[in-house]
Write a structure and sequence with these properties.
Order of helices and strands: HHHEHEHEHEHHHHEEEEE
CATH topology: Dipeptide-binding Protein, domain 3
Number of strands: 9
Number of helices: 10
Strand order of the largest sheet: 3-2-4
Strand content: 5-15%
CATH class: Alpha Beta
Number of domains: 1
């Protein structure tokens, strides 16, 4: 959700974005739509990555959402369009997750228009900074925290550029953590980075994939890798 006033309208207000974050029924997504096979980080550091603490994440609180809307001067709610491609989220079809968000936010007076676009058109508009609120995904190339902090922190790079986010605190913490060699200090910096993201509520994670793989009893030494899915080099036929 963009914090830019020209592009975002009501969602440019941090309290309005936080209200949206509190209004989402995360348990309904994880338990109802994904049958519990998911994790959910607090911010743009996935569960298992340095500095990530899922206990800091948003949980549904409709009273808090309504209080934040009043604080933002939007007690009667507002209209917002959420755009997404055709690929879905964590295996959930876009029509389904769109309808879920629409129903959740309607409970606090936020009227959502779900805008499902052909994926190529969605990416073009997203990269051109034309969309005030999007539902999108991110897959890493490697598992260091910089795979997220390098792209979700700076006004001229990655999704933070696309959504027109310019938050100096987030950018400064990302730069400090990326260059820190003391791992204890680095973890603390990324913890602060996570909290700054939670407070900004520009990026609000809904789910983090869990991969389920069934293997035949005829093979041994199957090795799963969370970035590139699986390694075949060690796999052998069972004796």
């Amino acid at each position: 959700m963009t914090p830019d006033e020209t592009l975002g309208g009501p969602v440019a207000n941090a309290a309005a974005r936080q209200a949206i974050a509190y209004a989402i029924d995360y348990d309904g997504i994880s338990d109802g739509l994904l049958l519990g096979y998911t994790d959910r980080p607090a911010a743009m550091l996935p569960v298992g990555v340095q500095g990530s603490d899922p206990s800091a994440r948003y949980e549904r609180d409709l009273d808090q959402a309504r209080a934040l809307l009043e604080e933002a001067g939007l007690a009667d709610g507002f209209d917002v369009t959420i755009s997404m491609g055709q690929g879905g989220t964590c295996g959930i079809p876009p029509e389904t997750i769109g309808a879920k968000l629409q129903a959740d936010l309607a409970e606090v007076g936020i009227n959502v228009t779900v805008d499902i676009q052909q994926s190529s058109n969605f990416l073009t508009a997203y990269r051109a900074q034309e969309l005030p609120a999007v539902l999108s995904t991110w897959s890493p190339d490697y598992l260091d925290a910089t795979m997220w902090s390098d792209y979700f922190s700076f006004a001229d790079v990655g999704p933070s550029f696309r959504i027109m986010m310019d938050v100096p605190e987030i950018a400064d913490l990302a730069a400090q953590a990326a260059n820190e060699t003391d791992q204890t200090v680095r973890t603390d910096l990324y913890s602060q980075y996570q909290q700054a993201h939670v407070d900004a509520a520009v990026f609000v994670p809904l789910c983090q994939n869990r991969i389920l793989i069934a293997t035949s009893g005829q093979i041994e030494n199957f090795v799963f890798h969370p970035v590139y899915f699986y390694d075949l080099y060690a796999m052998t036929k069972a004796a």
